[in-house]
Amino acid sequence: MTDLLTAADVLLMQGLAQRITAVRPDLVNSDASYGELAWNWGKGQAAQGASWVRRLWFAGDDLVAWGWAQLPRSVRLNDGSVKDVTGAYLAYQVHPDHAELVDEVIDWFDATADGLERTVLPGAADKFGLDRWAANGYRPDPDGLGDTGSWTQLNERDLEVLETPVLPDGFRFRTAAEAGPEAAVQAHVDAWGVTAYTPESYEGVRTTPAYRGDLHVLVEAPDGTMAASAIMWLDEANKTVEFEPVGTHPDYRRLGLGRAMLLHGMDRARAAGAAHATVACLGAPGHPSARGLYYSVGFSEASRDVPLLKPA
After folding, report:
1. For the chain, what is the total number of helices (H) and then of strands (E)?
2. Is the pLDDT of residue 2 over 80?
3. Which of 189, 214, 255, 283 has the fewest CB neighbours in a 10 Å radius?
């Protein structure tokens, strides 16, 4: 059925992500991972949830496919401006044992977003899915695939051996549980600039069942500024942790804070039961900074997505 996306739906979708991660992690779409679902739902549902519709497909009691269409809307940013989104974007996932359902997902999205420009990000490893999107008129997005394009690369590493994190003198690690909501929100806003992230967004993130304040880490500068922050999402079923988001205040970059924070976060995640970690970044050549940071702490490319576009 088609309806507005709910918190209960997101829990089912996370369960599907866990089941696919266990057998074919390369087929988990970039917006369909356990942590990404929690982050995207939590930060946006209060302000944008009225434009989020979904359809679910079941085999017996098990969710085996879903589509989450994000329809045209106006997004208010923290500088007071408003961004009008005029196209439709689809996040989706299909279990590999039910790959044929991708045609139903495509038909549903085309009907739901009829008359709109449509975008979708299937995984590069999903050859069957890519063929079906192409057969239905979706083509690679030249801008999204360019040197400064928007395609996403997922990176991974194991947590067996970790370097000891080193911070500059006067800096210290904190958790969001210690620092409090106001500091956690400010750290994100400082790192990301003009954004739709607000205290209300963070409250939505904090109330997702997957969120843990002890796995939301920050770096505090000597003057009390929260100079860097990262949220980790622990998938206990697969003993893997996902970083999303990761950011550093522009005045405190190139000091090694991001590197130290990632190592510290991985150590905390390992203590919580994780044996594996993932983090996504823009993969195009024109976006080297985050990729270089993640490579510097032992991550390597695991999978990537392919931006597709269908004109209105």
Report:
1. 9, 16
2. no
3. 214
